[in-house]
From TrEMBL:
Species per Swiss-Prot/TrEMBL record: Trieres chinensis (Marine centric diatom)
Gene Ontology molecular function: any one: ATP binding
Keywords, ordered alphabetically: ATP-binding, Helicase, Hydrolase, Nucleotide-binding
Xref: PANTHER family: ATP-DEPENDENT RNA HELICASE DDX6_DHH1 (PTHR47963:SF10), DEAD-BOX ATP-DEPENDENT RNA HELICASE 47, MITOCHONDRIAL (PTHR47963)
Record bears the keyword NADP: no
Stretches that traverse the bilayer: none
Protein name according to UniProt: RNA helicase
SUPFAM superfamilies the record matches: P-loop containing nucleoside triphosphate hydrolases
Length: 190
């Protein structure tokens, strides 16, 4: 797969697309360091377009499969599991403190859930841990409409006629930003 030959720094897609890509071996999920789920409330909609039960996020479909099966911080590859039975230790989840719990592959994966409209914030945070989407209880960050955007952050957009002109518009914006800054710029495109 292309992502194995030249591993990308950023991969953007819907939960369904990413689940398929990871399932086919297109992404080394054990190397994922950051997961950002934008509009998480929309991702929690079930296939019928109605909200999945906040009491059972397992009904959240592709997002739940992606985070629980492939990107769970508690998931280990079969290659990482010891083959010698003497190396195995039997324990229960109650015996492991959240702060000392080992994370797969020796690294912490940071997960960001972004939403302006998610209902029942505290319940959602607890469900993230219960569904093993995160190891620790997530930090809930609220922003207010009056907060200032950092002065080094700029937004740009272009109105394009049809899909054929989108890449040309993007190139024009990027060239303009590089010229304005006099060198390399960091860009995130949505």
């Amino acid at each position: 797969a292309w992502a194995w030959a030249e591993p990308p720094h950023v991969v953007i897609g819907t939960p369904d697309e990413l689940t398929k890509m990871v399932g086919r071996g297109g992404i080394r999920y054990n190397a994922v360091k950051f997961v950002v789920v934008d509009e998480v409330d929309a991702c929690l909609l079930n296939n019928g377009g109605t909200a999945s039960s906040m009491g059972n996020l397992a009904s959240a479909g592709p997002l739940h499969e992606l985070l629980s099966r492939y990107l769970s911080p508690t998931y280990d590859d079969a290659a990482d599991v010891p083959l010698d039975a003497s190396d195995l230790v039997q324990t229960s989840a109650a015996d492991i403190s959240v702060s000392s719990r080992p994370v797969s592959h020796g690294t912490d994966r940071q997960t960001v859930f972004a939403s302006a409209t998610i209902p029942q914030h505290n319940h959602f945070v607890r469900q993230c841990v219960q569904n093993q989407w995160t190891v620790r209880e997530p930090l809930h960050v609220r922003t207010s409409p009056g907060e200032l955007v950092p002065p080094t952050l700029t937004h740009a957009y272009a109105v394009c006629d049809g899909n054929d002109n989108k890449f040309g518009g993007l190139r024009r914006i990027l060239k303009k930003e590089v010229k304005k800054s006099g060198g390399v710029v960091k860009v995130l495109v949505f």
